[in-house]
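User: For my dataset I need records formatted as: sequence, then C-alpha cells, nothing else. Please produce one.
Assistant:
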Amino acid sequence: MSTQDQYLQLVENLTSAVLVLDCARQVIFANPSAEVLFEASRKRMQGLSAEVFFCGEREELELLHLVVKTGHRFSKREAKMITLTGQPIVTDYSVSPLPDGLILIEAHPRDRLLRIEREEELLNRQASASGLIRGLAHEIKNPLGGIRGAAQLLERELPSDDLKEFTRIIIDEADRLRNLVDRMMGPYRKPQISEVNVHAVLEHVRSLIDVESEGCIELVRDYDPSLPEFDGDYEQLIQAILNICKNALQAIQRANIDNPRITLRTRALRRITLGTEQHRLVACVEIVDNGPGIPAELIDTVFFPMVTGRAEGTGLGLSIAQSIVNQHSGLIECKSKPGETSFQIYIPLES
C-alpha cells in the first residue's frame, strides 16, 4: 500500500467529519464521518457550496475566504451548522488551508455531548429536589399526626358542637396538608409493569382532554404506527401525560388565543443517551401547544415541586410526571417560546 493510500485510509477512518473544499469553496471530498454528520452521501455532497453547511452565514463564508488569503487556521466552538436534510446541528469545527487554494474543514458534533450534560444536570437536580422534598415531608408529617390526634382528643372533651367546629377545621386542614405532602413526594407505589401501547395511552388522554375542553381545542394526532409496545405502567403513564396536557390546556384557555391547538406526536429514535446510558431504541412522545409559552424565569425549574405560573396552581403536575417517567428509566424535557411549548417524553423501548 502506498503512502498516499495509507493517508486516505487514515482519513476515511477518522471519527471527525472531514470536508475538503476547492478554491470556489465547493466540496470535492467528504469522509464517512462527514456523511453521517451531514446526513448525505459523499456523491451527493460533491460540488455543493460551503454555504449549504453554514446556513448562508456571511461571517462564516468570509472566514473561509480569509483562511485562503492569510494561510492561517481558525476554529469555532459550539457553532451552528445544518445537515442536508435541514436539521440544525452544533459542532466544534476548524478550518485549515491546504496547498493549491484548497480548504480543509474538520467538524466534531457537540449535540450529543451537550444533550448528555443537560440531561445529567436535569436528573441530578430532580434527584436533589426529590431528596429534599422527602426529607421535608417526613419532618412535616410527624407533627401533623400529633396535631390531628390532639385535635381529636380535644373534640371528645368539648361540651358543645359550636366549639367542636373549630377542632374539625384543625383536623380537616391537617388532612389537607398531609395529602399535599403525599402528592409532593410523587408516586407512592412501584410501577405495575405490563405491556403498554403508547398510542392507547395517548388516545385515553386525548378523550379526557376533549371532554374537559368541551371540544373547543383542536387535538392533532401525529403518530408513528411502527412504535412497538414496551414494559410500563399504563395508569401511571396516563397520569404523567395527562398532567402535561392539562397544563397545556389551562395555558391556552387563559391566553384565549385564536385556533387553539394541542399536538400529540410519537416517534421512534435510535441511539439516544438518557443520563449516562445510551439506549438502542427510544419512544419519544411530544406534546406541543400553541399557547403563550412558559416564562423564561420558570423554564429551568419547571419540573420542581411547587413551581407554577398560576396563582391557583400547586406546581405538582410536572414534578409528578417527571417522577413517573424517571421510574420508567426515561426523562421529560421542555422547550418553550411564545406560540409554541413542547414537552418531549423519552422512554426506552428495551425491556
